[in-house]
Write a structure and sequence with these properties.
130 residues; three-stranded parallel sheet; 55% helix
Length: 130
């Protein structure tokens, strides 16, 4: 299975006139005719670039990334945790990485974190000041 890089996903999502090879690749991925592995860091890098460089609104980014997660050939280590991250980020003004940490904690059955960031408590976990 091949891996997919941030720049390929970004080109697909942002290029006004993507080339036919790129469209064909993502069509195959969407249908499950080709499988690609997307590491979590790539997923979050796409979100970061869409938000910071392209200035795309958070709600649109969430919708776009949720859509991408439905592609049958897109393989990730734990799509459910990524989906939960998007759910948390949609409902809270917090940083997406804080939402990812909490989604991972929930998956692991944990509820406490060492952190100086008091805002993380808004996500329903107990913060312990180190």
């Amino acid at each position: 299975m091949r891996y997919i890089d941030t720049n390929v996903i970004l080109r697909f999502l942002t290029d006004k006139n993507p080339n036919e090879k790129l469209i064909d690749l993502f069509t195959r991925i969407e249908r499950g005719e080709e499988e690609v592995r997307c590491v979590d860091m790539v997923f979050f890098q796409v979100v970061f670039v869409l938000k910071s460089f392209y200035k795309i609104e958070k709600d649109e980014i969430i919708d776009t990334m949720r859509s991408l997660l439905t592609f049958k050939g897109l393989r990730m280590k734990d799509k459910q945790t990524i989906e939960r991250t998007l759910d948390l980020w949609e409902r809270h003004p917090d940083d997406i990485i804080d939402c990812y940490i909490v989604a991972c904690m929930e998956k692991d059955g944990e509820s406490e974190i060492y952190s100086f960031d008091k805002k993380i408590e808004r996500l329903g976990i107990k913060r312990i000041n180190p």
